[in-house]
């Protein structure tokens, strides 16, 4: 009993060291907060992320393994730094660095899915997952690899959210707890067997499909064998094998998957710096050189580190939510112009010079202003990424061609208005 009381008091003392700035996520098994450490003199340091995980549900054990490994001197390039890990009653509390950057989902949305993006991101992602598998004995299995759990910054890629990660147990027949995101989690994660390194291989295959298409993999995609016009046949075969239902048919390790990816891109002439595709589409990510002294000795030299790019297709780059809001505003402006044009065509004011003109003349004078002049301008300044997802062929249209089409439409509109104006009766006295 005294030991339990001491443990509770210690947990309370640690909790009191942090000021809660915001609750980022709250659920039945996990609460995530953004916190700041408050020193004895009132000075604050942070931000950090603090998680309370349900210990009875078997969550959070991976954080403790990572924390102990980091305290023992291990350095990981692609895992968050754990500041503290302790028991808080029936929960496990974890305090870690607040990883900055964009999620993979946001990057793919902002830059558009492409072969160039996959060539830059996927090898680094494989390297990150290999840290979990090769850096621990027995391996750590993440079990929840998905676009929102991959963070990209200008200098690194970091895997986050190890709440349902587990240690591989050679003697177990299946996982004790069945968690995961169904679109990216393998069948064995839901009762068909025990998860191992090939379970993360499955998730990586699905992430590769996402990088190439921006589609969440579903049953239809798997049934079609992941066939898509944007996926070369060589890479389609890699995805299909990585995501095989039977773990025995998948790649044995992430390293083997990474080699297969490199071989497939090379065979298709799509590797960075070679082949027509590389020449036609510039890489979305730059690869800054990391000084040799900054590389931990226990890890091999990292491959090209992705830097969040400036998409060559979009002069203006904004976040997904702001982009949708901007499109809604532009759509409202366009609707207003169409409504005004319709009113002037079908219900002109008596003082309107074109009120006595035939209906067809009024239509040819006012509708081109809204449809051929205002419309193309609004389209060109809009965030066209949602439209490209609905009509994938638009992703292959360059902004220069879009500008040319919009300019032609504008000129046609001006000509139509000018010609229609010749048929509008002149006011008396002219």
From TrEMBL:
Bilayer-spanning residue ranges: 324-346, 366-382, 403-424
Enzyme Commission number(s) of this protein: 2.7.11.1
Keywords for this protein: ATP-binding, Kinase, Membrane, Nucleotide-binding, Serine/threonine-protein kinase, Transferase, Transmembrane, Transmembrane helix
InterPro entries: Kinase-like_dom_sf, Prot_kinase_dom, Ser/Thr_kinase_AS
Keyword Transit peptide: no
Family annotation (CDD domains): STKc_PknB_like (cd14014)
Protein name: non-specific serine/threonine protein kinase
Highest taxon listed in the record's lineage: Bacteria
Region (Disordered) residue spans: 279-312
Pfam family, one: Pkinase
Keyword rRNA processing: no
Compositionally biased spans, kind Low complexity: 300-311
Gene Ontology molecular function: any one: protein serine/threonine kinase activity
Protein kinase domain: residues covered: 18-262
């Amino acid at each position: 009993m005294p030991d339990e009381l001491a443990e509770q008091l210690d947990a309370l003392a640690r909790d009191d060291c942090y000021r809660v700035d915001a609750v980022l996520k709250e659920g039945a098994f996990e609460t995530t907060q953004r916190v700041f450490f408050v020193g004895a003199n009132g000075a604050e340091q942070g931000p950090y992320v603090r998680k309370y995980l349900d210990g009875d549900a078997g969550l959070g054990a991976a954080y403790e393994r990572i924390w102990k490994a980091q305290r023992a001197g291990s350095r990981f390039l692609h895992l968050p730094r754990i500041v503290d890990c302790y028991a808080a009653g029936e929960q496990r509390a974890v305090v870690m660095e607040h990883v900055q950057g964009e999620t993979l989902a946001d990057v793919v949305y902002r830059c558009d899915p492409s072969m160039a993006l996959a060539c830059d991101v996927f090898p680094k992602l494989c390297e990150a997952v290999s840290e979990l598998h090769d850096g621990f004995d027995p391996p750590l299995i993440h079990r929840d690899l998905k676009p929102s759990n991959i963070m990209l910054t200008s200098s690194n890629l970091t895997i986050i959210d190890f709440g349902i990660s587990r240690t591989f147990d050679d003697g177990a027949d299946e996982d004790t707890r069945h968690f995961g995101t169904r679109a990216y989690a393998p069948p064995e994660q839901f009762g068909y067997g025990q998860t191992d390194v090939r379970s993360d291989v499955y998730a990586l295959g699905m992430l590769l499909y996402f990088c190439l298409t921006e589609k969440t993999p579903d049953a239809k995609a798997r049934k079609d064998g992941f066939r898509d016009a944007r996926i070369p046949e060589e890479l389609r075969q890699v995805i299909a094998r990585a995501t095989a239902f039977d773990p025995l048919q998948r790649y044995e390790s992430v390293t083997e998957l990474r080699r297969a990816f490199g071989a497939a891109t090379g065979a298709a002439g799509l590797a960075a710096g070679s082949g027509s595709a590389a020449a036609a589409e510039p890489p979305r990510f730059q690869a800054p050189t990391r000084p040799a002294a900054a590389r931990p000795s226990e890890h091999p030299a990292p491959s090209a580190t992705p830097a969040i790019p400036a998409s060559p297709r979009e002069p203006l780059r904004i976040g997904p939510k702001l982009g949708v809001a901007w499109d809604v505003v532009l759509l409202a402006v366009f609707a207003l112009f169409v409504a005004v044009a319709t009113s002037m065509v079908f219900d002109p004011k008596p003082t309107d010079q074109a009120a006595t003109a035939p209906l067809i003349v009024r239509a040819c004078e006012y509708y081109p202003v809204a449809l051929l002049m205002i419309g193309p301008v609004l389209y060109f300044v809009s965030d066209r990424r949602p439209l490209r997802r609905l009509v994938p062929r638009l992703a292959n249209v360059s902004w220069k061609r879009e500008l040319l089409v919009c300019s032609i439409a504008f000129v046609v509109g001006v000509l139509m208005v000018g010609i229609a104006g010749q048929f509008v009766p002149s006011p008396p006295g002219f």
